[in-house]
């Protein structure tokens, strides 16, 4: 059996794997990228049809390649996938598509890893798991299978026409849930939206997109607080980019609900947290406006004032009298879309780099198993880590670490015998 030898093996050719390849190439580290599907497959085929990037083109990109067209536009998902293909060509990334990594184990008695793939065996000194943070759709076991009720995860949603006739309940009001609920409402559906805790920055304020504000206010670089779950962020690049405003959605006919808690005989119960969740989201929105105003004043920047952005509209009826329970059949709900996030799957990574729950055990992507790295994790080093532009900086850190480790291994004592220095 022939075993291919590579210095660094990168698993996955999404944005994380490509950023890794770019930095390894710059550092002169030979490597191979294995991708089980196609480059940027998730952007290509595992998102809904109308998805556009959540940040403008000038921002949501790698520093070494600009998007074609309007830099302030929100690029459609297929163009994002095309962008990464172009980038892979630009850097001549050594990507092999259609190859799945099924196992990585540590060598015994010598450094490095033995890797089993769908197309043969590989020996690698370093392994970077760039398989993303959005691997396994998570659907909480709340509603049992019920005749006449379709339940799908947001990753399986494509467009309104795909769903059976009837009202839709969307569970989860992060960027995915809110955008899907909005699209369904616009298509003429009756829509219920179960709203959990969230942040909701203004899309634009005083003429600048929120990505700019988070940048100048140093918020993209905020580090994770140990033990604190991060709050989902509700933003949208749809329709040219809009502020997520739950009151406006309710004014258009959407029914807002608290967190979905349980289901008994076809009747769903909701937590009494709707008003509180919306209030915290409003406070997050208003606090960013206040910080932006202070920044403008402190720095004497000439940006037009926007006092009307501080006005929060009246509470809709569904907030004044929150619904505690809902009979699915009576409400005509035929579909539930669970926009409840993703889990990770590192079952192929059989090394000492995972905690008891199977999650990466790491610091800034450097795992507890020397030689194994992670990339693309939310809050890997900072708030921006799982975003297109953020993963670029984390990949640089990982590449630097590999170079440092390599230098230690290459060290030989000055007075060592010649044979040892050879
Ligand atoms: C709905 C949604 C919208 C998003 N919108 C934005 C946005 O607008 N802007 C932004 O910056 N970020 C956005 N993100 C976050 C993030 O940028 C994307 O999820 C992005 O796809 C993550 O890139 P990645 O390279 O880390 O992982 P992925 O894109 O998931 O790439 C990992 C790759 O690894 C491959 N792979 C997995 N296992 C194996 C294996 N065992 N062997 C070989 N290959 C394997 C997969 O096929 C996949 O191609 C969004 C996320 C979601 C879910």
UniProtKB/TrEMBL annotation:
It comes from the Bacteria. SUPFAM superfamilies: FAD/NAD(P)-binding domain. One of its GO terms (molecular function) is monooxygenase activity. InterPro entries: Auxin_biosynth/cation_transpt, FAD/NAD-bd_sf. Keywords: Oxidoreductase. This is FAD-dependent oxidoreductase. It comes from Thioclava indica.
